[in-house]
Structures are given as structure tokens and as C-alpha cells.
Design a protein that fits this description.
single chain; 4 helices; mainly beta; five-stranded antiparallel β-sheet
Amino acid sequence: MRLDRLNTRRSAAARTLASALALCGLVHQAQAQTTTTLGGTVFTVQELVGVGRLPANLRDVHGETFGSISGLWADASSWSRVGNTYTGSFLAAPDRGYNIAGTIDYAPRLNSLQISFTPAATGASGLAQNQIGLDLVGSTLLYEALPGGGTRLLSGLDPVPGGVAAGGARPATALLPELPQAFNGKLALDAEGVVVLADGSRLISDEYGPSIYRFAPDGQFVGALEVASSVRPIRNSVTDYSSNNPTAGQPGPSPANPTAGRANNQGFEGLTISPDGKTLFVGLQSAARQDINLASAAATRDHTRIFTYDLSDLDNIRLTGEYVVQLPKFTQGSSTLVAAQSELHALSSTQLLMLPRDSNGRLVGTQTSLLRQVEVLDLSTATNVLGTQQVAPGGVLNPAITPAAKTLLLNVNDRAQLNRFGLTNGLQDGFENLSEKWEGVVLLPALDPDRPDDYFLFLANDNDFATTDGFHAGAAYNDGKDLDTMFLAWRVTISPVPEPGTALMLALGGAALVVRPRRRKVALVG
């Protein structure tokens, strides 16, 4: 059920009363507040209320460098509040391992984090970066069971160029689609998003395929979802999953870039589930190659795609939709560039949050980010282009196609807010610059009976395993810089008010919940 159809009368009355009180000076309005509306839903960003970090050289239980957040999921059953402190559990997916000089045989995994969060006082400044306490409490390696017995880990290695015939992919079977494979025979996975289904299995979105893998809670590979042909990378008339990042001694692809399908390192970057648990969303990081003007690729890769899957039968998950989303553009020097989407978070069956960003940050690029923000998307009026190979010839959207509606929610680069916590965007004396990649999004309820429409919007970065004291795949490494894992949290208001008891469903997008409306208690099923 959509947010804008929930308790409309109650919400309208609440907003009217709030407006009247504000005019009388009885409702505090933080200076940072910004409000936007899309599809009948009103979004208000109050202010940045928390920062937390884990050290860049942190190692997991396997003795390897932790590697930050490429995908983030929150456990609905764990989120609770005592006084002004919140606790909960997150599941995080790192990407393919430290890979400055080509990819390595890093074993993909899912990391478990515990969070303890005490929001900063409204309007406070000169704050430490300790409101969000984080603990790495577990790490589950991803593996497959072998037909003759035994197991084999998956790998972050780039798939072999040439597809199935060259050993760079496993052929499709009656139960599985074609999947990318490394030179050592391992399934190749560059993890970018994670969700947990009602049966406890995990879905992980992958950049190589792009693919959507399914794993049991213990990390065993149990399946993969069908993927639209429009995003399968094509070279020399065959599907070729190489991202042009070969390990030492292995060949690179020719040509370097696919002629159609996902661009190199621009696969399935965002993954999320609707609050009712019925719809899976996955997003391509930027436009497919056939939708780019190759003469000006950096400026015309803005027509990306979001796909929907029907989750009503977990034994038969079906691809149901394909929608165009226009990514934001920005100017850097004399160039027009496109900010790639880095994560999605579902608010309803048609509305999502999207996190687009540029490639600048601490010790990277220009160091000053020109675009790093959260947008709201609405697919309700967008054209379903499922089965359409090309949507933007020469980088220009087909006028017969209606893209998703969208609006800006949050400017992450707001210096006034960052400065309150000793952070900044760019180089500014006395403040620490934010790192480049922000790829985790979670929305959790404030559990405030006086403000039932309030939530905490958490963003988390991906540090690309950057540390001067690293260890992966049996070898130490030194990246030359230390980028901590960081979380930021904003307090936001989203209305109309959801039906009683469904606020937690909205916030966590993917849990199947049973609700007792009168007591406002929520219990996890499955």
C-alpha cells in the first residue's frame, strides 16, 4: 500500500495543526529543516543528529580487512529504544576486495554490525563523532556446495573475458541463469546490495553479471534470479562479464567496454524490498551502454534503469518491471558529468530513496564533492519498458517513455550541518573531509509517540578497503591512506502517517510483520 494513500485525513489534520502551532512559535523548527513533496508524500529533513566510525584497519573474524559498506540492511526485530538510546543490528555487504592493481581472490562475505545510537541534541554544535556506536560482531563467508561433496568459496576476481566459451561464465540451467565465473572456476561476485527475505535467505546484488544471488543464512549459495537481457554486457556478440579489471597474469577483454548492457563496474548497485514485502527493487548504477552517446559517455549515461520483482512466491520470484530513472548531472570544470546511483531504499510499492554521488572526496578526485545527495523516486506514473533493449538512443530519452518522477530530499554536502560534527565537504581548515563513496542507506523509526512520522535516515560509506595496514587473500597491503568506515544519521519526517503499526515496515522495507494496532507492537514473522 502506498504512503500517499494511508490515513490521508488524519495526516492532513496533523499537518494543519502543526503548521498552526509553528506560526504561534510553539513548535521548534531547526534551522536545517527543508521540506519537499512527491506523489502526495511530504518529506522534511530536520538536521544531522549523529556520526559514528570504525577504524580503517579493522579486521574481521577471518583476519582480513573489514572493508566498509557497499550494501546495508537493518533487522526489523532488533530495533528498540530505551530512553534516548536506540539499538539494533545491521547486515553489511563489502564489495570485491582490495583491488587497486587488479582484482584478487577475496572471498565475498556478509558482515554483522551492532549499533548503539544516541542522537545529538537539536541545534547543538562542537560535537564529537560518537553518537553512533558500531561493533563488528560477525562475518559470514559466501560459498557453494560442490556436487561431489565439499564446498568452494565465491570470489571477487574479475570474470574471464569471452563468456561461457572461454570459461568466463557458467551456462544457464533449468534452475539458474547464466552466471559470471573467474579463471579459477569460482563464481564471481562484486557485492553491492543486500536484503533478507521472509524465509531468512539473503539476496545480494552483483556488479559483474549484473546478477542477483541468493544465499542461505549460513552463506551457502542456493540460487539466482532472472535478469533482463537489456543489462547483460555484450562483447563480440556474446555475453561477456569481464569488467576490465583482470588479476595479475590474466587477460583483459577486447574491446575494453561492452557494446551493450551494463557498463564496466556499473552493475546492480542498489537493492531494496517494499514495506509490504511483495516487491523487490534493483537498480543499475548508470545507463546501459546502448543508451549512451559514446562520443560523450560521461555526460550521457544518465538514463539508468530500476527493475521490479514479484516476491509473493519466494519459490518463484518473477521479474515484473523495468523503469527509466534519470540521474542528476553536474558540472566539474568544463565537463558535464553524471552522478551514478549508489543505493536504493523502498518507502512503498512505488516510492524509493536513491543515493546518487560523484567521485570526489577525501584524498580522491577534486576532494570537493559537487553532488552527493538523497533523492525521492516515484515509479507510479513511469512507463514499464520491460523487454525494451534501448530507451535512450544516442543518450536522448525516447519521448514515448515516461521516466520516474523524482525530487531532492537531502544535500549530504551541507557544510553547516557537517561542521557541527567536525566534518566538511572539501578542504576546510579545522574540519575533516568526507570520503568519496557513500553506498549504504537505512531508514529507521524514531519510535517517538509524540512524533510518529519521524525517522532516522542513516547513510554509510564504502572505503574500498583503504588502509595503510591491510590484509587480504593471504597478503598484507598498504593503500597509502586510511579511510574509516563512517555512518551519518539525519532525523527526517515522512507523512502522511502510515497505518497504525506499519511504521517499522516502512522503515525497514522488506520484513514481513504482524501488527497489533491498538498496542502498536510489531513482531517479526519468519
